[in-house]
Specification:
The structure holds 2 protein chains of 2 kinds.
Chain A: E1 3-6, E2 11-14, E3 19-21, E4 23-26, E5 32-38, E6 44-50, E7 56-59, E8 62-65, E9 75-77, E10 86-93, E11 100-101, E12 105-110
Parallel strand pairs in A: 2-12
Antiparallel strand pairs in A: 1-4, 3-9, 5-6, 5-10, 7-8, 8-9, 10-11, 10-12
Chain B: E1 4-7, E2 10-13, E3 19-25, E4 32-38, E5 44-51, E6 57-58, E7 67-73, E8 76-81, E9 90-97, E10 107-109, E11 113-117
The chains are: A mainly beta, B mainly beta.
């Protein structure tokens, strides 16, 4: 079946630290992969996506590369800010069925 | 572009009453919308898939008579929580796919509705 596994949180980093949130997936076929971000009390916002192997999605300093050989889509940012504190969800879209989400990783960035 | 709104953003109601939540795609047409429920500090749980002009498809364990979904137009889906009880208190989030856009695989999410049943 289709599933997404994210690293357990919470993750606490100091401002300007390097961020990696691991995400691996299991899927049939070739799904699109997504990272969504949820700020406190809000819905989800699309952060970035990649639709095929070796694609790199990027936005707001975040990036993730679709790695078919390792079935991974790790999220990275070179220098986090306090405003990046949120919950990050990795997700896949297996052929236009509803998104399959990971459990989410809570990130706290302290000044 | 690709904005989804929800109304109301929060609602408090008495046990036994019904509450309607609206989900609108503001600048695109959505043949398919999704309703999720999220408990504190947890991931999203898909409740149902709403297709314009047809009956919604509910996930296993979701009571269709309790959570009524109507998708009457390409820009509006509604979720009605009937005879609400305190255990229905939760954060409800809708999402929509842009049927005519380039990224038909992408779901755009509303800001959520926090329901509290007293």
């Amino acid at each position: 079946g289709n599933s997404v596994t994210q690293m357990e949180g919470p993750v606490t980093l100091s401002e300007e630290a390097f961020l990696t949130i691991n995400c691996t997936y299991t899927a049939t076929g070739y799904p699109s992969l997504f990272w969504y971000v949820q700020y406190p009390g809000e819905g989800l916002q699309l952060l970035l996506k990649a639709t095929k192997a070796d694609d790199k999605g990027s936005n707001k300093g975040f990036e993730a590369t679709y790695r078919k050989e390792t079935t991974s889509f790790h999220l990275e940012k070179g220098s986090v800010q306090v405003s990046d504190s949120a919950v990050y969800f990795c997700a896949l879209n297996p052929r236009n069925t509803p998104l399959v989400f990971g459990k989410g990783t809570r990130l706290s960035v302290i000044a | 572009g690709a904005v989804v709104s929800q109304h109301p953003s929060w609602v408090i109601c008495k046990s036994g009453t019904s509450v309607k939540i609206e989900c609108r795609s503001l600048d695109f047409q959505a043949t398919t919308m999704f309703w999720y429920r999220q408990f504190p500090k947890q991931s999203l749980m898909l409740m149902a898939t709403s297709n314009e002009g047809s009956k919604a498809t509910y996930e296993q364990g979701v009571e269709k008579d309790k959570f009524l979904i109507n998708h009457a137009s390409l820009t509006l889906s509604t979720l009605t929580v009937t005879s609400a009880h305190p255990e229905d208190s939760s954060f409800y989030i809708c999402s929509a796919r842009d049927a005519g856009g380039v990224s038909t695989d992408t779901q755009y999410f509303g800001p959520g509705t926090r329901l509290t049943v007293l």
